[in-house]
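Bench notes, bay 3.
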Amino acid sequence: MINLDDMLSQLGDVPVHPGLAAMDTAVMAGLAAHQSSNGAGLGAGTLRPASVAAIAALLIGVASAGLSGSPAVAASSLTPFGPTSALAPSTLLLASR
């Protein structure tokens, strides 16, 4: 059976691949090329549709709230210890008699 600690210590003794040093510059060059072809910063292509959708949702919400003809009225709460509730089991059973 191979011990994981032995494997990790052997991996630590291996020299670093020379291509890893050039990887940072390649990634940054790719990001710069993508950014310049996109015409803006990262995520600018997704920011515009998301902001349009958010503004549309806000306008629809404000319009629907403003167009309602009647004012909002709070519903009466059903409390178990208050007056007799229409949904209490005792009233539901007595209603069949």
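Next record in the batch:
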Amino acid sequence: MIRKIDNAAPPAPTATSRAALLSLDAVDDDHLIARSDFPLYGLPEYSKPHQMRLCKRGDFPMPVDVSARKFYWRAADLKRWRATRRARSNYAPERARETAS
């Protein structure tokens, strides 16, 4: 009996395929989210230095220190940040150009 061996491994799940399973709105407000899991929840992947600049400026939620080297973000803070970010995204550049003229 001859069996055909398929050496091709099945494709590994990607962040975009798992993102459909994870919703920031579905988790409890006290849930902690690691920076490495941001793409799974549809959150932007900023570099660490840029993200900390945003935190210090008040443009991104401050992380919770779990230990000396572990930082997590509260889901409630990220939900609130995302809601305010969406509100600001209703910016209409056409109106801005008209008022600038």
